[in-house]
Write a structure and sequence with these properties.
By secondary structure, the protein is mainly alpha-helical. It folds into 2 domains: about 10-55; about 60-125, Arc Repressor Mutant, subunit A (Orthogonal Bundle). It is built from 7 helices and no strands.
Length: about 130
């Protein structure tokens, strides 16, 4: 099922979209914990989230984590520090996460990494939060 643009999300999806940036900053985001927080079973939550957001939950969370890491590098953290803060094991793990989303591989220089990723997320309407 594809949702028409402009229609409001289900309240559980709205609550999830509000919770996720803070949860990303706090540490591990687990499907089980989020589905409980919005009073849905895991299977119902996954179906509803995918149908309304247009992306499965795990790739969406990965995208938020990469966005958060990019925001941290813009603020002056090294790629390794940003990767750790965003929940990745190291900068290589962050790099692999970038490659899982088309067009999001970091370039050789950090400044190009910032520009490339930030422009992709700004186009997608996703901003980093700190």
């Amino acid at each position: 099922m594809v949702r028409a643009a402009g229609l409001p999300h289900h309240p559980a999806v709205n609550k999830t979209l509000q919770l996720l940036p803070g949860r990303i900053q706090e540490g591990t985001v687990r499907l089980r914990d989020i589905s409980r927080a919005v009073d849905l079973s895991e299977s119902r939550f996954m179906h509803l989230f995918s149908a309304q957001v247009g992306m499965a939950f795990r790739p969406y969370v990965r995208c938020l984590r990469v966005t958060y890491a990019v925001g941290l590098t813009v603020q002056g953290l090294s790629l390794t520090e940003a990767a750790h803060e965003a929940g990745f094991a190291d900068s290589s793990h962050l790099n692999r996460a970038c490659h899982l989303t088309p067009g999001m591989a970091p370039n050789v220089s950090t400044s190009q990494f910032h520009i490339t990723l930030r422009s992709r997320f700004v186009q997608a309407g996703i901003e980093s939060h700190r």
